[in-house]
Amino acid sequence: MALKIIVDAFGGDNAPLEVIKGCERAVRELGVSIILTGSEPKIKKCAGENGLSLSGIEIVHTDDVFDIHEEPKEIIKSGKNSSMAMGLSLLAEGRGDAFVSAGSTGALVMGATFIVKRIKGIKRIAPSPVLPGDNGSFILLDAGANTECRPEMLVQFAIMGSAYMEKVMGVKDPKVGLLNIGSEETKGRELEIEAYKLLEKSGLNFTGNVEARDMPRGDVQVVVTDGFTGNIALKLYEGMGSFFAKKVKWIFSGAGKLGALFSMGKIKQFRKQMDYKEVGGSALLGVRKPVIKAHGSSDGTAFFNAVRQAKRCIEGDVAGVTESYVARMSAADKE
Amino acid sequence: MALKIIVDAFGGDNAPLEVIKGCERAVRELGVSIILTGSEPKIKKCAGENGLSLSGIEIVHTDDVFDIHEEPKEIIKSGKNSSMAMGLSLLAEGRGDAFVSAGSTGALVMGATFIVKRIKGIKRIAPSPVLPGDNGSFILLDAGANTECRPEMLVQFAIMGSAYMEKVMGVKDPKVGLLNIGSEETKGRELEIEAYKLLEKSGLNFTGNVEARDMPRGDVQVVVTDGFTGNIALKLYEGMGSFFAKKVKWIFSGAGKLGALFSMGKIKQFRKQMDYKEVGGSALLGVRKPVIKAHGSSDGTAFFNAVRQAKRCIEGDVAGVTESYVARMSAADKE
């Protein structure tokens, strides 16, 4: 039976048009079926006006949309009839296999925690974007949900991230690095010093501290840190990307047509490497079933990629792999 | 009388040759005199072999060099005869007006704190690099010394950074931003939430939170955060800079001579904008007298710029301005 991906039709800046575009393409190219949550008349009207087929797409109607400026906890209160909460409930009930939304990250983390629930033994859910590096991409977690963490949470992030990189990104035995302010194991705050010790005996492929300076090299595939630091690092990564893209454009504005022509292929290749749309979105790791947070400014391609990413999470059984690792580890601790 | 800058002749990867080069040029172009600390025979031999003049340069001899891998606190113990500790002592004794070293940041912070001492009322010394932004440069502090901070320390960083940007960089009424994971005042950890409130009533030109994504724009001139987060942000900034410089080079390797010719001026301009050597080094703010940490890989130009930066700190009386601001604020608190 085809996998069924639930998608929030009213999350993000370009909803519902770009959501529908991405889903139509996903049905056609990925062989999945889709459940869209949100206003049925609006979805049908938008699809009709833009000549998009809804074949393979079921709609579960709700009029409510979760406001991005609302407090995250409202997702299980005043927002419980929103297209986001509805999608999470359908996932919890087993009506679909994964959920994609471009709505509020905070609400999605909160809703995933209380509606879909965490993997057994996992303390916190972490938004986990995959970022481009020079020698390959890497996953960064926690990227913003848990601003204060205990050392054992960082170990769990390492387990979750390793499972993802291995099962979804096909990296064998991914290297894990602890984001820190120096390479020695005595560096950092109490959090890093304790997490270092725990990671060393975790059985993961822990290669020690990674300094922020070395992150863009992409020498390790899993970078763990608390949600405050991770959010700063993620957003600086994005901000520097935009800054440099602008600069490259400026430099080339004087290169003349000939120079631009020679370099255009490489610029495109570079932009593709740096483009979040290629990745899809951030997996919310630690949830019992795959939940993908698509970027707020996602277009049809980004939504298509997010659905593809959700499909790969199911196929790779990231949650199952994480759960058995955590169970093995806690059994070893008891010995 | 000419200002006298004390320079550690044996700090950094390129000591003493590049240090001497920078100092020779500083004597010639800035009208300052220099005290070099370190092995007199080695300095004289190096200068002689490379045809560098030591005119205007006094040498205060010591054989010891502080090992960069040594624990910072050793600067006031086993390292107290090192060229770094000697320079700090000369500064404390009033034999010179400012000190420049490219040695260990940790040791320099420790030595500055205990040998030169802090400005009255200032709780912590912060390494404070000036970083390039699209709309102008900005100072980031604390960039690594105090991994855990209290809210009032962030306010002091804001005062120190504002004094520096105004008096050394010539920015009138510099804007202050609190590095945070969102724009609302309720965002962040207890540290940010409390610091936000204190900054609002500080009398500084506080413009609210700044997200890491917006840092490269350079819309605010003073960015304050704790030393852990600041160090991650600084090193990621540097790392992304190298990554993109490499990419730009790669893109141009196919642009053909004509295209490269058209763009070379802009590339050079961009590189200059991103180059730490142009700035000099990181001022250690909060010390009673100017102490500049030059980059470990500084060349003659970078040392020259660090000496120029030290001179500007003296001329702008950054420490005096900071002290009177802190005094005014604590008087206002008592009212």
From TrEMBL, chains A, B:
Q: Name one GO biological process term.
A: fatty acid biosynthetic process
Tell me yes or no: is Methyltransferase among this UniProt entry's keywords: no
Pfam families on file: FA_synthesis
Name the Gene3D superfamilies for this protein: Isopropylmalate Dehydrogenase (3.40.718.10)
Catalytic activity reads:
a fatty acyl-[ACP] + phosphate = an acyl phosphate + holo-[ACP]
**GO MF terms held by the record:** phosphate:acyl-[acyl carrier protein] acyltransferase activity
Localization annotation = Cytoplasm
Q: In which pathway does it act?
A: Lipid metabolism; phospholipid metabolism
What keywords sit in the KW lines? Acyltransferase, Cytoplasm, Lipid biosynthesis, Lipid metabolism, Phospholipid biosynthesis, Phospholipid metabolism, Transferase
- Per the record, GO CC terms? cytoplasm
Chief place of localization: cytoplasm
Q: What is this enzyme's EC?
A: 2.3.1.274
Task: Family membership, please give it.
Answer: Belongs to the PlsX family.
Assembly description:
Homodimer. Probably interacts with PlsY.
Function of this protein? Catalyzes the reversible formation of acyl-phosphate (acyl-PO(4)) from acyl-[acyl-carrier-protein] (acyl-ACP). This enzyme utilizes acyl-ACP as fatty acyl donor, but not acyl-CoA.
Q: What name is this protein filed under?
A: Phosphate acyltransferase
Identify the species of origin.
Ruminococcus flavefaciens 007c
